[in-house]
Design goal:
- The chain is of the alpha+beta class and about 160 residues long.
- Helix content is about 30%, strand content about 40%.
- The protein contains 3 helices and 10 strands, in the order βββααβββββββα.
- The protein has a 6-stranded antiparallel β-sheet. A two-stranded antiparallel ribbon has the order 4-5.
- The longest helix has 26 residues.
Amino acid sequence: MSESFVKLEQDDDIVMLDKDTFTVSRLKELTAENMWSKLFGQPSLASSLCQKLKITDKSIDLDLEEIRLVFPPKGIDCQLLKLQSGKWISGKIRFQVDVDYRYIPQTGVRNKRVITELEFAPDEIIFNEEQEQQNSNSDQNLDEIRAKLNQINAL
């Protein structure tokens, strides 16, 4: 498998996880809702995670009001139905969740935002029809060049 994950852009494509199917948009929505409750529910995981991190002698503060979670890092098995092609593609899917827990001094309120994206890595390299046609044309061009070289060598 090529471990190159790409963001799923088409919200109407279908993802099958085990025996359940979801549109990309619905899976992102459900993940965001669940992450929201985990991060901002009681007790709040976000308040623990998004505190300033002290480094070394505690003189260096890192601001963790914005964090990105990617899980599982190597993805989980799934199938993706791309509506353009109408074909199921086996691969791995992983979730990328961006959390914004920034304090806004002007309002005195914390910005609480969860944005979810899905990333997919196919088990096999996928060529679209245009790429397949280009590969076919390249093979034909190489055959023509070989034939001409053979003619030249015969002289």
